[in-house]
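Chapter review: from sequence to fold.
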Amino acid sequence: MLGLLIAFEGGEGCGKSTQAKILWKNLCQNIPVILVHEPGDTALGDKIRKLLKRKQSYSISPEAELFLFVASRAQLVSEIIRPALEAGKVVICDRFAHSTLAYQGYGRELNLSAVAAINNLATQNLKPDLAILLDIPPEQGLARKQSPRDRFELEDLSFHCRVREGYLRIAAPEPSRWLIIDAMLPKTKISHIIWERVSQLLPLPSSLRGA
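The token string follows.
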């Protein structure tokens, strides 16, 4: 029996990493669960992360950036995510394929169909059972970030606005698979909304459903 794949998505400073960790902590005492983040969590992915996130003395073309993210994802799916799902575990992803469509497709303005096709190859057509989008105005999200900023945080505001619009367009056709949350809400309120939705997908004891 396949496990459950939950992806956290959103722009810079939306709080997705914090909420992914909270959900993992809520589940790990009673449910077999792992938390992974992109790019990274494999030997190859960690090296790619350093190339992609740090401000470099050389430039990375949008196309090269796309293939680096996809290479990291392909390794993560093959090495960690798919084996965990096949073992019946819950897998929580701090970013997944939708990030590439939003950032490299909408943000970098690469061909959306091509990005989607490359993503499908990398993920082996794997889609999250639930995608959680923490939506925040880019100005607010960037204001939350601490210096030094990485390559993406240093992009101009128009880039981040395209990313946000991309996420909303991606989520719109599949309301049953997406949970869109106002990331400006209090952290505890957000985690409660997430828990309510996730608990409906899991065979949890009734004592845990109000966690």
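Two observations follow directly from the output. The domain at 4-203 is CATH 3.40.50.300 (Rossmann fold). Residues 135 and 182 are 5 Å apart (CA to CA).
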